[in-house]
Amino acid sequence: MAVSSTVKKITNEYSDKLRLVIKEVPYAPRQYSVNAALAALAAGDQGKYWEMHDLLFERWQQFGEESLMINARDLGLDLERFNKSMNNKKHAEDLERNYRQAEALHVFVTPTFFINGKKFDGELTYGEFKKIIEEELSHAKQ
Amino acid sequence: MKRRGVIFVVAFLLVSCASITSQKRASVPIDDSPQQGPASAPITVVEFLDYT
Fold it and tell me: Fewer CB near the last or first residue (10 Å), C or N of chain A?
């Protein structure tokens, strides 16, 4: 929750200078963790990825199938389409790709950030994030 | 002789710094992962996350 808030604050502050890319790597043995990631990607098919992303952090620990459906309903998604995506695990291959990339990049904890390719394991405070970004921006100007 | 030593040290430090910098930056595939912000932005943040 705190991490998401920090990332959101930073992306809002540097909206014209920063691109944020998300790679979901849910903890595979926890099905609800996988379902939450699949729900975000399924919402993305209907143009509501970021809205679902935010809801998953706002309604943290509410990842049961029913809760995910409530999220989908609250976002005004086509529920039949959403359900179909979830049941068919439409985005399972995307997660597999993310796992492979994470392994290749030695990502062992979440969150892990790559800021212009520089790796940072674990949470970053707002101050840490800002410092790194300002350093990168000053390099970009040189 | 002393001057040659200084040049050697400076050259060694430059090579070392360049090497360290290049090691620190990974090439992370973006592909069709969810993203927001301008593609040409000077800063790209890739976040590997788990919602739970």
Answer: C
